[in-house]
Specification:
By secondary structure, the protein is of the alpha/beta class. The chain has 8 helices and 11 strands. It folds into 2 domains: 120 residues, Response regulator (Rossmann fold), CATH 3.40.50.2300; 90 residues, Arc Repressor Mutant, subunit A (Orthogonal Bundle), CATH 1.10.10.10. It has a 5-stranded parallel β-sheet, sandwiched between helices. It has a 4-stranded antiparallel β-sheet with strand order 6-7-8-9, covered by helices on one side. It is globular, with a radius of gyration of 18 Å.
């Protein structure tokens, strides 16, 4: 299993590389985005770990170029960016997950294994089929049932998109705070939004895993 790492902080890059090698991965790491891009076009890799703010070409631009060329290798962003618009942009470009700096290397291991064991919805898989004749368009942010558009609020769309991208896995309240709101939000407020969304598309699609969070099954 081959992993490419893009990180301009030398100490962090070396720590990640050594940690992944100890886990049994083959690793190649880069400081500059353009160097990683050149290497990626000459070899195949199984997953990318991408910092966003790097020299040459940033992580967002790099992933955008890859997706436009048809390359759907799974990608995880490692970044200090926390604003919800930045998180949304990464998912729109086709990343599978985010790891926010600073982080524990054990978290990196967990997220890597999570991405590798599930399907990652890239930009060439915009239409996601859901039960009960529902579909969600990841490009247009549009939910339909039997071709009829179902009206969703901005927050409901972000909640649904996160659940789809984490399909088969439980999404905790903390994850909703981080990836939908980009800040701490009262859990009761989050549950109100999810309850309204479940009323629109059915409780059998978004399942409440008591005490842990919510999920959409694969």
């Amino acid at each position: 299993m081959k992993i490419m790492v893009l990180e301009d902080e030398y100490a962090l890059r070396m720590s990640i590389e050594e940690f992944l090698i100890d886990l049994g991965f083959e690793v190649e790491s880069f400081e500059r985005g353009d160097e990683l891009l050149d290497a990626l076009y000459s070899a195949n890799y199984d997953i990318l770990l991408l910092d966003v703010k790097v020299p040459g070409i940033n992580g967002f631009e790099l992933l955008k170029e890859l997706r436009e060329s048809g390359n759907e290798v799974p990608a995880i962003f490692i970044t200090s960016l926390t604003h919800v618009d930045d998180l949304s942009k990464g998912f729109e470009l086709g990343c599978c997950d985010y790891i926010k700096k600073p982080f524990d290397l054990k978290e990196l291991e967990v997220r890597l294994k999570n991405v590798l064991k599930r399907e990652c919805f890239g930009v060439n898989k915009e239409i996601v089929e859901l039960p009960n004749h529902y579909t969600y368009d990841l490009e247009k942010f549009e939910l339909r049932q039997n071709r009829e558009v179902v009206s969703l609020t901005k927050q409901e769309k972000r909640i649904l998109e996160l659940l789809i991208k984490q399909r088969g896995n439980i999404v905790s309240i903390e994850q909703f705070c981080d990836e939908v709101w980009g800040e701490y939000v009262d859990p009761a407020n989050i549950r109100v939004h999810i309850t309204k969304l479940r009323k629109k598309i059915g409780k059998d699609i978004i399942k409440n895993v008591h005490g842990l969070g919510y999920k959409i099954d694969t």
